[in-house]
Amino acid sequence: MSQQHNGTEPQPPSGFEDVGELVAVLRAHHANKLHLCEELEAIADSLPDRLGPKECLAAARRVVATMHDAHEFEDLVLWPVLRAMRPDDVALEECLQRLYQEHVEDESYADELAAVLTDHAMCVGECNAEAMGYMLRGFFGGVRRHIAFEREHIAPILETSVKAGQ
Ligand SMILES: [Fe+2]
What is the pLDDT of residue 1? Predict the structure, then answer.
């Protein structure tokens, strides 16, 4: 699905000075998500006996908000700018569709993870540490791969645009 090229250079959305600022915000979201992954990995490593309810509840709150904020920026702000930059780039469009789908799946996964972390903190249900560890590792492994893909395939498009002075 390509947008029509209107012959003018794409402008950053309102609230952003230039494409360089968009790159900086993308990097900040990546850093936040990588920090979250470290936090979740520490929780997974501390299972089953060295995990307190405070860490679980803090992670449960952070996981949903961090993922939502990053995805909202990418889907609603950054992807439209990229589409405007390269309206005829079919490969880019396929990438953006794939990344959007991963955002939807990751947010659903984040909701489930938050519920499991909260249940664990409250000692609700079986508190199956093995299952929770498996779930945590699946989540942060996927998020790290997603970020690596965006760093390799998405960020360079923006950085090239910044260097070209657009
Ligand atoms: Fe993303």
Answer: 38
Contacts of 22 (CB under 8 A, 6+ apart): 12, 16, 77, 78, 81, 158
CA 60 to ligand 1 center in whole angstroms: 20
In a domain, 89, yes or no: yes
Q: Which domain holds residue 54?
A: 19-163
pLDDT of residue 125: 59
Residue 129 has pLDDT above 50, yes or no: yes
| Residue 53 CA: distances (Å) to CA of 44, 65, 90, 93, 133 | 14, 19, 47, 43, 15
What's the CA-to-centroid distance between 26 and ligand 1, angstroms?
9
Written as six digits, the tokens of 165 are 């002075």
pTM: 0.85
Task: Using the structure block, give the residue that is written with the tokens 């920090």.
Answer: 35
Domain count, the chain: 1
